[in-house]
Amino acid sequence: MKLRSLAVAVAMSGAVSGLMLVSSVDNTAQAQETFEWKMVTSWPKNFPGVGQGPERLAEIVEEMSDGRLTIEVFGAGQLVPGFEVFDAVSEGTAELGHSASYYWKGKAPAAQFFAAVPFGMNAQEMNAWLHYGGGLELWNELYDDFGVDVLVAGASGVQMGGWYNKEINSVDDLDGLKMRMPGLGGEVMERMGVAIVNMPGGEIFTSLQSGAIDATEWIGPYNDLAFGLHQAADYYYYPGWHEPTVMFEAIINEEAYASLPADLQAILRTAVRDINADVLDEYTARNNDALETLVNEHGVELRRLPDDVLAQAKEHSADVVAQLAEDSEMAQKIHDSYRAFQDKVVNYHTISEQAYYNARNPDESTGN
Q1: What percentage of the chain carries pLDDT values higher than 70?
Q2: CB contact at 8 A, 242 and 316
Q3: Nearest of 238, 283, 208 to residue 50 by alpha carbon
Q4: Is 329 within any annotated ligand binding site?
Q5: pLDDT tens-digit profile of 320-341?
Q6: Is 243 annotated as a binding residue?
Q7: Which residues, in sequence order, are CB contacts of 33 under 8 Å at separation 6+?
Q8: Three-class DSSP category at 140
Q9: Which residues are involved in binding Na(+) (predicted)?
Q10: Which residues lie below 8 Å from residue 205, measured CB to CB, with a gap of 6+?
Q11: Could you report the per-residue pLDDT of 74-83, keeping only the tens digit for each?
Q12: Which residue ranges form the domains of the chain, and what is each CATH number?
């Protein structure tokens, strides 16, 4: 079964009882067969949140399969560089990968829609689109030519706006800055005068500390504290307009997946669905504690991005996203699905979640 149908399949088989029925099928030969997989990632080994998700995935799969499917997890650079995860899975060097789809924009520009869209949908909305709005089917259709399938494997939640080695008081202060920011957000910043430098996460601290870059975004307080970015830059800006979430992906080699018996396929799908929720839960639980440590113990200057920066970023974002949609017929198809679903959920969220937040904290604000 192709993974593009799994948005429905996973939802319907989410109950453990359903999975156990699959697992109880009497097939002695398959029950005795074991599989040893490799999983490559774009993150440092055991890195908080995004790096620990793959480790938990491997543990869940091994436990649920009673050791019949084991997964060895490799951090970025251990088996392949972080930016070569997609190729490694496509070519069969590894059966499984964990990454973010905007890293593959050179191969499939439209993949960026599935990672993060500036001023776009947040994690809750993205999960709804991917699992119940046809997004996951489109994602798998996009990856068809590469011999890989994909499942949603975690989310960061709304990110921070970035670390800067100088104050940003207006959009003019961005001109000439060298900054690490991937994806569509980086293209927006380029239109605002920023020189974008692409690099994997493991190179960020050294580059910022040495002055090779003047600013960076990474993920949020939980990961940024772990990376020690407060030791390389003083100013920490919000909001993360460029990444209202990043959706992480589990990339699966098609042939390897097809070689698994049905019960192990179901176990793998269920385990990925589990860490999809778990990674976001971890970020939600840990980010504020880390933020308080950064501000109260390390003296980090927490600042809101100026209004003119946000206004120009929003204006340029609309142009960048529209231009991406024109890249191909497939990109337009994904864009149209994304925008239609966003319009639908925002319509309800305006009178539900947004109205609730306004009622819960009517006087709460954080100034520059």
Answers
A1: 90
A2: no
A3: 283
A4: no
A5: 999 999 999 999 999 999 999 9
A6: yes
A7: 68, 261
A8: helix
A9: 218
A10: 227, 228, 229, 231, 232
A11: 999 999 999 9
A12: 3-155+244-284 (3.40.190.170)
